[in-house]
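In the current project phase, the collection of sequences with tokenised folds has grown. One resulting record follows, to show the layout:
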Amino acid sequence: MVMSSGPASRIGDRFRTAGDALRTQLWPLPVLAVLVAIGLGVWLPLLDAAIGEDMPSAVSSLLINGGPDAGRAILEATAGSLITATSLTFSLTVVTLQLASSQFSPRLLRTFTGDRVVHATLALFLGTFAYALTVLRTVRSGDDGEEAFVPHLAVTLAFLLAIASVIGLVFFLAHLAREIRVETIMRKVHGETAATIDRVFPDRRGSASPALPVAPTSAALIVTAKSGFLTGIDEERILAAAAKHRAVVRVDCRVGSSLVKGVPVAVGWAHSDEPIMRAEALEEFRHDVAAAFTCGFERTAVQDVAFGFRQLIDVAAKALSPGINDPTTAIHVLGHTSALLCDLTQRDLGARALRDDDGVVRVILRRPDFAAFLNLTLDQPLLYGSSDPAVIDRVLSLLQEVAWHAVGEDKPAIREQLQRVAAAIQQESHPPAVQEHLQDQLDQVNQALDGAWSPHGPVAGGRA
């Protein structure tokens, strides 16, 4: 579908990219909590000293009113116990990351490092530790000739933070036990991928796409300025660059692709009714277009729909490996990918064109079509799970579910995958009953493709 880029969505993508970079870091929230705790630890004792004996009795009765030794004991115990709890939290988090990497997929580490509960727990522990130490320096016993001083408000808050930290540790352990379950992981990746689909492919499938400009043989090559994964394309920037130089740009790489510095990623040429760019402007044009590409050392889900599928299929591939041998997990993964594929059948996929204010096509973005997502979903499960009847049965169910939603232009890709599954079934020596069941599943997929399938079997007349 040919369309222009909306300013709101472009600005939203920029905020999402920056937010995703911060969200997947463990340090920002804990560091902020430490800074706030230090400020609070300095300010509350000053407030205590300013109030002095004017503290209302109703408030004073609720505070910890011990002497300097009691105040120091509470603050020292809070600081000592919290640094131990923080060490335990870090250790459990690292073990979780190691388990997720080895048992599921290294691509899932972003899911765990972006967990807000982990961030909040570390922030609570480190903030309480820093606060207790900061307040401890203000407690005076009076042995050195100075007036004894105990900041009762500050000590009471330290006590409350210590209790909150104990409760937070219990909730953190319960949360960690839930988050490490593969079902929870798949549900989170599914939800994140569905949200990315809504952002990247917001338009429902409509009429056939109009013809797009074809690059001439004299088109200028545009190379990438750095190596890494293509994590995003600034549509506003690349459209502005093309309009500025009165050119047309075709981007030949997809978001999520691996880029190598100096390798062409796009081509540009002058519009048919506009003058050819002068040689001195060509380098500036190339630089302006290349600046619209964002590279990173790892893929993200901000603009990369295929990354979500990659994460899910990695879990299935690991589950089907001889070392783990967990086909049930692979079957559950196929259930999640089936739902995502059914959603994609209703979306405008493939190439996307951006127009300038005059309605001229200036940018052609290459995006994956339905066949690319279907191949990504089934290539590895068929490769590693073709000998398991349960996996093949779920693959056939996936094709049947997708076929029920698919439109005409998507059905050839489904038929191609169906032929691969049929060939895999023939190569395996399954028992006759299993062979008969799988053949029946094959027939049901064909019926769905022909529009003559229902939950209760074939029906006459097909579907509208």
